[in-house]
Write a structure and sequence with these properties.
Layout: E1 17-18, E2 25-26, E3 31-32, E4 37-38, H1 39-45
Antiparallel strand pairs: 1-2, 3-4
Length: 65
């Protein structure tokens, strides 16, 4: 099934994923493939990547808890 629309986190076109937890459409920058969650849900359950001030993932491998 194809997913179309805007990323609910950044508004960017070209969403490719649907969060398994909340159902949000998200782009590859805001999807945590190991969990199947958007970065917002991943952060709530303790598995999300760390976001920078502009709500974009930072380039390091640090995770927030």
């Amino acid at each position: 099934m194809s997913v179309t629309g805007l990323c609910t986190v950044c508004g960017r076109e070209g969403v490719e994923y649907t969060c398994d937890r909340c159902g949000s459409l998200v782009c590859d920058r805001h999807y945590e493939p190991s969990l199947g969650f958007c970065v917002e849900c991943a952060g709530e359950v303790g598995g999300g990547g760390r976001l920078g001030e502009d709500n974009q993932p930072e380039d390091d491998d640090t995770y927030r808890v």
